[in-house]
Every structure is written in structure tokens, then in C-alpha cells.
Amino acid sequence: MNLIEQAKDLGFLAVGFSRPHTPLFYEPFRAWIAAGKHGDMSWMANHQELRENPAGLHKGCRTIISLAFPYSPEKPLTSDGFSVSRYADPRETDYHDRLRKKGKILAGVIGQEYPGTRSRVCVDSAPLLERSFACGSGIGFIGKNNMLIIPGHGSYLFLMEILTTALICFPDVESVKSLCGECTRCLDACPTGALEAPYRVNASKCLSYLTIEKKDGIHRETGRKMGRCFFGCDICQEACPHNRGKESAVVTLPAKDAILNMQAEDFDEAFGKTALARAGLEKIKGNIAALMGNQTNHAKLATDPHRQTQTRTEKI
Ligand code: B12
Ligand code: SF4
Ligand code: SF4
Known about the structure:
alpha+beta; 4-stranded antiparallel beta sheet; two-stranded parallel ribbon; binds cobalamin; binds iron/sulfur cluster
């Protein structure tokens, strides 16, 4: 089986190729950082030279392969109607681990097709502008909500890249035309105004950032805008016509009070291997408290040993 056949066999939706040049949207990225739109995610401002010149991430890199992998469009619900983002499906192990395993299989295929070459798999783990490369490789377009959208599938997908020293030949890339047109549904739907303009997310206002990445708790004012979702946010994707017809939901979580009463061991046992572990139990409890109209306990959050986000680093 060749690389593309094997990728499809492993469940990938699309495969695209680029050379390791400056990413398509590097300048808007730089402006985004300069304007401080990355909130407390100081790691986003690091390694700008590598984001500009991704060849530095993998010595001798000659091809970047962008791959898109779908996740379930079913919204995960608690038994009493609260929810988390679809990407954090508690039935699945964290996508970083799942995709990395698949990526390694594909790297093996490349090694067989191009003996003597080396490949590196990246899933959300390196200073690499993944959406820019996916868009530049012709697998989809970037919507005004910033999401990489594949026509006919939508945006409920993860991105992964394989950086390889193999000089893979590919035809001239045909870019996918934007299908946003005059639509502004995502901007209109965003409850916090984080989508300040088309293609411009102010991360520090984004519920995904506030409920997962931000170290401090959430203020009551923001809590009111969270609806019933206590981890991540899918609102600008739910509003998008390219995800239409994917509004189903499934109960995969215990009731809210059961989560609030969990001890660290219970959480580790139930969700330790899922994407929910990134925020940690205390952050999740704080998020629930915030959407219920209570203030978060900041002191407790800062010392939660189960929270993974405080030391996030990107591998270079
Ligand atoms: C930091 C980060 C976040 C931050 C900041 C979000 C953001 N929009 O930047 C926070 C925590 C808020 C976040 C939230 C989410 N994230 Co996130 N995140 C990342 C990460 C690590 C870096 C993104 C980045 O570089 N941001 C900086 C901005 C400026 O760059 P950008 O997002 O690539 O946006 C580009 C476009 O705006 C474009 N652009 C600028 N001007 C213009 C003009 C035109 C005309 C066009 C076409 C494009 C364009 O240029 C930008 C720079 O390349 C990536 C993984 C990676 N290494 O790329 C995942 C990633 C982007 N996230 C992902 C996901 C799934 C999410 C959430 C859906 C999770 C959730 N449900 O809660 C939300 C979506 C929020 C949103 N609407 O963007 C996926 C996206 C998959 C997809 N289909 O696009 C990624 C790729 C992770 C992965 N490997 O799958 N995320
Ligand atoms: S993820 Fe939610 S808060 Fe963030 S930009 Fe989209 S709608 Fe707004
Ligand atoms: S909601 Fe409309 S404007 Fe926003 S990404 Fe989807 S098609 Fe584009």
C-alpha cells in the first residue's frame, strides 16, 4: 500500500503536500502575536524563527505532509445535559496519542518507499502553523472562524503533519476556494466577541482558552456566556453551515454533581487518558462552578497537581 492508501486505511480524510517554506499565513500570525492576542500562552511567541522556517524542525526536511483526521460530530453530554467540546470525546484516548501512533505507521511507509530517509510526526506539538500548511497543501480552506474546513466534511477534524527528508514529488497544489462568501454566522454566534473580525481570534476572550488553557479561574461574567459547556467551545463550528446536519449528542459523561464530587483518583481513572486531562479536575470543577454562576477557587487551581497545562511546551 502506498502512503495515501495507507493514510485512508488508517481513517485520515485528506492528505496534502507542501515544501518546508514560510507558511502561507506567517505574517498574520506575527501580527497576532505582536498584538498580544495569544493571552497567557507565552509559548506561542517562542521559536518564531522555526514557525517562519519549519525546515529547522527536522534537519534535512524536504516535504511536509498535512493530514486531516475526523472526530465524532456527536456532542458529549452529561446525564443532566451539560457538555464538553466534541474534540474531547471522553470515549477516546487523547488525540495526540492516537494520531501519533497512526503517524508513526505512515512514517514507516515513507521509510520503505524512500529508504534512508527520516520522518518526524507532529500533532499540535511543535511550533508549526498547522492550519496554514493544511490550507497551503490544498486539503481545505480556512473559514472566518479560523477553522480548517474540508468541503463536504466540515471542520470537525484534527490536523497532523509528517516532516520528512524524503523528496516526495507531487503535482502543483490547487488551493481550495473559500466557501465563506458573505456569511458571518460564526462571528455573530461567538458569545464572547473572541472572533473580533474574520480570521482574527482573540484567544484571551475565547472560551476554549478560558476553560482549558488559562491558569486562573473564570469570572462570573464570562461564566454566563458559557451556556452548558464546561470544557472547550464548539459554538463557532456549530454555527457553520459546513457542519450542518451534525448536531447530534450522546450521553458519555456522569452527571455534573458526580464530576464536582470526584476525587483526583476517580478523575484519573475515568478521564486520565482523555483530552479532558489537559485541563485537570480542579480546572473543570472551576469551569462548572463558573457556568453555574459561582466564582472559581483560584488558589486551589494554581496548585492542582493533575493539571497539565501549566507547563505546556512545544518540542523543537
Ligand atoms: C493556540 C491554539 C489554540 C488557541 C488559539 C486559537 C487560534 N485560533 O489561534 C485556543 C486555545 C483558543 C484554541 C482553540 C481551539 N482549537 Co486550537 N490550536 C492552537 C494551536 C496550538 C496553534 C494555533 C495558532 O498558531 N494560532 C495562531 C493563529 C493566528 O493562527 P491560526 O489559528 O493558524 O490561524 C491562521 C488563520 O487565521 C490565517 N489567516 C489570517 N488571516 C487570514 C486571512 C485569510 C483570508 C485567510 C484565508 C486566513 C487567514 O492565518 C493564521 C496563521 O496561520 C493549533 C495547533 C498548531 N500548532 O497549529 C491548535 C488547533 C488550531 N486547534 C484546534 C482545535 C480543534 C481547536 C478548537 C476547535 C478546540 C475546541 N473545540 O475548544 C478551538 C477553536 C477556536 C477557534 N475558532 O480557532 C485544531 C484545529 C483543526 C481545524 N479544523 O482547524 C488545531 C490545528 C490542533 C490540531 N492539531 O488539530 N486553539
Ligand atoms: S471557540 Fe467559542 S469563544 Fe472561541 S471563537 Fe469560537 S465561538 Fe468564540
Ligand atoms: S460560519 Fe460562515 S463565515 Fe464562518 S466559517 Fe462557516 S461559512 Fe465561513
